[in-house]
Amino acid sequence: MSSTNSDRSFSWICPVFYRSGGCAQTELRLNRRTWDQLQRAMWMSVVALPLLPVIATLVFHYRERVGALCRSVFHRRKMSSFAQRSLERRTHSFVLMNSTHGQPESVLQTFECYSQTQPTCSIGQEKGEFLDSAVSRAAPLQALELGTHCGYSAIRILRLLPASGKLYTVEQDPDTAEVGEEMILVAGFKHSQFQLLVSPSCTAIPQLQPQFGVQSLDLVFMDHDVAEYLPDLRALEEGGLLTKGCIIVVNNTHLPGAKEFLRYIHNSSHYSVCFQALGMQEIRYQATNTTEELTVTLSNQMVT
């Protein structure tokens, strides 16, 4: 654009500057710069517009991965409890109105339908299938979930438990726990099949044995604050709650807060990582018994 044309554009847009003179000319130069930036933005919009259908197709095709990314961003920014409760309430209302009550698969499909267009706190279908595989391998009689959220993962676990199996699910926020519990009940499960503990995980884990008579766990699913993964794992160890062969499924292992937990798992001979994908890991606890551990320890001391 020539200088004359540019001046004409500005005399039409900002005639006051041409009448004012003096310092108005300085302001005019600033507005000229703004006008140039506006023109560049308009050209970028024209170029980007044909790409929108392609972007929309890619987002739809990879919606599960995009959803997982959004949930990771929420975790990193540590969403306020108010925002999280609002998110879960909206999900709850949609599922309540659109699912067939008493049918777990219908409730799960309604969750997934909602998550295609709206953000949710559920782990989503792809991660849900990873969890399904781990639960099927564990065939747990006693399972523990840390982080109930909206109840999605609890429903996935419960539908795969044996008839005599039971899930203990822990959620520290009372409002979130209420939403999660109602979703589990809407899916058709009874209180005899699950126990919801409304407290921080560090408080709930020591209560499992004395208050609920839990002697051992066959499956643990960690989907709460990643900073609590390692302290909670140690609490489970110290309480003797992990059976040999217990499967531990961990979500969001790609987050920075999970580094200490992963280092601990890697350096311990008691754990082996069986599968990992989508920011999740399936870990098997394979501790030796106390007598064997003592023998190995004494042998090592004698050698040194």
Brief write-up:
By secondary structure, this protein is of the alpha/beta class. It contains 14 helices and 7 strands. A 7-stranded mixed sheet has the order 3-2-1-4-5-7-6, with helices on both faces.
Structural overview:
This protein is α/β, with parallel strands linked by helices and 304 residues long. Helix content is 59%, strand content 14%. It has helices spanning 3-13, 15-20, 23-48, 52-61, 63-77, 81-98, 104-115, 124-138, 152-158, 174-186, 201-212, 229-238, 259-267, 290-303, and strands at residues 142-146, 166-170, 194-197, 217-222, 242-250, 271-277, 280-285. A seven-stranded mixed β-sheet has the order 3-2-1-4-5-7-6, sandwiched between helices. Strand 1 (142-146), helix 9 (152-158) and strand 2 form a beta-alpha-beta unit. Helix 6 packs parallel to helix 10. The chain is globular, with a radius of gyration of 28 Å.
